[in-house]
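Researcher: Here's a chain I'd like modeled. Treat it as a single chain, no partners, no ligands.
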Amino acid sequence: MHETSIAESVLGLVEQAARQSGFARVTRLTLDIGCLAGIEVESLRFALDALAPGTLLEGAQWQLCEHAAQAWCMQCAAPVPIHTRLDDCPQCGGHQLQPVSGTELRVRELLVADAPAPPAAHTH
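Model: Modeled as a single isolated chain. Structure tokens:
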């Protein structure tokens, strides 16, 4: 399941951002996933759930948004939406499509917070 290594890479990006920006935890993470990226969304969600405890992602909400792809139809000479690499052109039925988007995995939103305040010291 390569989604586990993808989840680890996402955590690595978050940790790098935390070192650069000084935040202590993530409250929300939104990922955009192209439908041609070869990522099983539910498997990635499972991997993030398994990876989060004890990391900056613990307790964070995440949203995984899968998006349709775009291709250039060489017969129509127009951009068209596709859902798989095997789709025909929805306008002319042609088979000569060149994907131009839909393979990406992108962090769209990262909401962060400082560490929770330490408990107040008790005085006796």
